[in-house]
């Protein structure tokens, strides 16, 4: 629609904040009736630049379950947000957070995943967290599934490969929507749902003994069940709490062609489509035609109930959220790979990279925002973006100018996208407090504005300290993004 002028600043109601996941911050993995989750049976990585989240077997799960410690499973301890949440939220409030994204651990509410009645102690913990947020007028943004489904469902029915998991999940979502009616304005269904093509960590499905083609069949079938569960959750929320909104969440992996060669351009387009396929289903409410060829060429045959596609069409998400850490490069015959938040692709010679090999591309964020706005015309929300770095703690703080520089450049590109006309709801920087890394389970991969005294082995006082970036982000929020100096 034509109108004169264009927006030149962040909207007045822009939602500044931060984001975490239960399995990376909470700890208290065996407290108050909580069940074990998929995240808590994956061992810490040996090599920080080689991510392998699908190398899980039935035997490794049983070994993990039998281990009563957190030595090899750092996500079991997190940074003890379970007992420090009041202190941590007070620090978030001091920075001026408008919103805090966190996940409600399914296994804290339904320990095995298939119970008919919730664990009241689990609900009470999240009641307490939300009450603390309300005290500081911070809105909660709740992720319903963030790589932490109950391991009981993996053992019982191989996670999301079973259609029965839909009913189990939607019993959980209905419980949450009813219990927190009027208190949670925004929900997300599945965190980085597209990473389900990488296996266990997102779907809870053990398929390590399968061939590549069998794994593709297994993983896309499991993802179909998640699409259906997301649509049902949307229906539930709209009926139970009509004022609340629900969104999808994608690990955005903008793909560039390695050269102007049309074959490389086409290869990049195909990779980008495979990334956006998931949002096509959740936001447009239908499987896009371009995936029919991919499914056929890979012998993927999805099993659907008669009303599945009608359900997807009738209940698309209200808004689209995504994580953004890096872009990737591809060509018709892909060579060397670069890892980063589940992305693989060729290295881009124009970009710098982090200590973990993740290439840094602020302009790519604007490109992604513009493309996604043009494609969907639904409100967008950047719910993860941050720099994992090795911080040096000295004199009671961390002088993290590198983190400030990274965030400044990305926020500048968000502002450019808003000037382009993108409807951007907010920005929840990933890991406002140091947490356990998802990909490698390291503590030394630090993202936060707040330093936590804990090392990779779990040693430390857990005392919290403000980094230089703490006051910088406070200034950014206070000025609504106008002062990035």
Describe the structure.
The chain has 485 residues and is of the alpha/beta class. The protein has a single domain, classed as TIM Barrel. The protein contains 15 helices and 16 strands. The chain has an eight-stranded parallel β-barrel, surrounded by five helices. The longest helix has 29 residues, at 212-240. The chain is globular, with a radius of gyration of 21 Å. Pfam families: Glyco_hydro_1. GO terms for molecular function: beta-glucosidase activity. The active site is at residue 384.
At CATH level 3, the topology is TIM Barrel
Beta-strand segment tally: 16
Widest sheet: strand ordering: 1-2-3-4-5-7-11-14
Number of domains: 1
| Helicity, as a percent range | 25-40%
Query: What is the CATH homology-level superfamily?
Result: Glycosidases
GO molecular function: beta-glucosidase activity
Organism: Lactobacillus selangorensis
Family: Belongs to the glycosyl hydrolase 1 family.
Keywords: Glycosidase, Hydrolase
How would you summarize what this structure contains?
The chain has 485 residues and is α/β, with parallel strands linked by helices. The protein contains 15 helices and 16 strands. It has an 8-stranded parallel beta barrel, surrounded by 5 helices.
